[in-house]
Amino acid sequence: MATAALNRNLALKRRSSRIALNAPVGLTAEDRAKALFTLTANATNLNRHGAAVQVTRELLVGTTILVQNKRGARLTARIVAQVNAMQGKHTYGIEFVEDNDKSQTFWGITFPANA
After folding, report:
1. How many structural domains is the chain composed of?
2. Do residues 82 and 92 lie in contact, with contact meaning Cβ atoms separated by under 8 Å?
3. What is the pTM of this model?
4. Whole-angstrom distance, CA of residue 5 vs CA of residue 33
């Protein structure tokens, strides 16, 4: 019960609603071993300010990454949390560093206003 209440409170504090869509993205970043990489990832739970991304690399919270959408638009984002790690796949919460028109339209969808 307490977990459900906490999740509701966190959802109320979100800056934008999450949409349960998947989007392929390209990521360029440094992994935990400081090795530079570029790979294709899957972004989920899209929102106006970021998403969750699933990668096969271990990243550090606070790391800055470059995210590219399928239309070729690029934005800088920051790893803000590790959400999950299972069977070699790591899921991280990311937020866009920029808060401008480019970041507002990055996913190519319109987000509903938070109630």
Report:
1. 1
2. yes
3. 0.79
4. 38
